Amino acid sequence: MPQDPAILRTSRLLRQEAIDVYKHPKPTLTVESQDCDVTKVVQWLACAEHHSTYFRWDLMGKPVWNNLLVWLESAWKGECPGLMADGDDEKPWIKAVSQLFDVSEELQDRSGLSWQEAKPVLEKIHLAMATLDPSWT
Q: Where are the domains of the chain?
């Protein structure tokens, strides 16, 4: 029988508070998204409670702006998780999408803007990105 990690043997209090992390980790769901389209994921999340699930996004295709805008709005409303790039991704556009989620979160948390007020700011960023890379349709 494998022994518990050393951190769980440090003290009873620490063991009591951390044991669930080691014994019952939250499930991770890998979600594939073609061209940043997350409509089916948003629909699935609306049908059932999945609050204890970690999401790993597997993005394929290219950054389709209209799909990404729907995803950004869904994340803004708390209907769907956004994207945090892990830093090892080879596709620069995925890092850019991750940064857009960071900007969106900043606009919501720090500025207190509504989605309708934040959307034009994100649209301007989109125009700049499309100027540099035409694949940002």
A: 6-132
